[in-house]
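INFO batch 0412 | record 1 of 1 | parsing
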Amino acid sequence: MRSITDRPASRNGTRRPMHRTRPLAVPRPLAAPRPSTSASAAPALVAVAHGSRDPQALRTVLALLDRVRDLRPGLDVRLGHIELNQPLLPDTLDGLRGADAVLVPLLLGRGHHVKHDLPTAAAAAPSVRTRIAAPLGPHPLLVEALYGRLVEAGWDAADAGSRRAAVVLAAAGSRDPDSAQDTRRTARMLGERLGGVPVIPAYASAATPTVPAALRALAARGRHRTFVASYFTAPGRFASAAASAAPGTAAVPLGAHPAMARLLLHRYDQAVSATASTDAVTLLASA
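INFO prediction complete | emitting tokens
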């Protein structure tokens, strides 16, 4: 997957490395106590968000992490951003010196951020014993969150048997073939969850088809009752662009849906229990 991102590619098509852009203001304190260094203490869960200029993005991620804390009282849950928002990931890791941490990407598939930015940040913080969890998708819990958001947007069980209904899975897009593969797999899983309704992946950047093009293609096939599923963890520029292309009400981003909180903890637990070396990066988004 391409992670959710408001950052465009450079002119030569490569991704720019993670850098410290000027962060936006944080709406509430994010300071957390320095964790215990006891060997029996559970590793900290560091949720890694991309960051966005949309102020709703940070509020949405904070609400999601509050749900995670409710599900796992006592777990040290922290937030780090790749860019644009405080706290930046290097600063979060700096506050965990001498501790263990699992970086859980709030990203929906394998892409540049998961493969390059997170390992780079982990390597730059040798005083923290880190391991990197798999991205959130593909996974049945992610599909459950997508389904829930579609129901909120007006999807009805009767649509499952309609020849006029269809869904466009609007994603950020990536040049990484693994990211596109992950998005297509999620689209297939969502189609199965919807009772066989066509679900077409579409992208806001870097890949085709675009959301408007996918909607036109579905209309040409007689699929005029179309929904746009927002395959984004939080609001942002790409999510807004996808929603504006919807013929009706688009589903909101996945955000703090209860299934998302459960999925974050599932990825965390997978990484903690993994038998691989703690400095290895697990990139297989297994269900």
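INFO post-check: Confidence is low (pLDDT under 50) at residues 1-22, 24-40, 275-287.
INFO record closed
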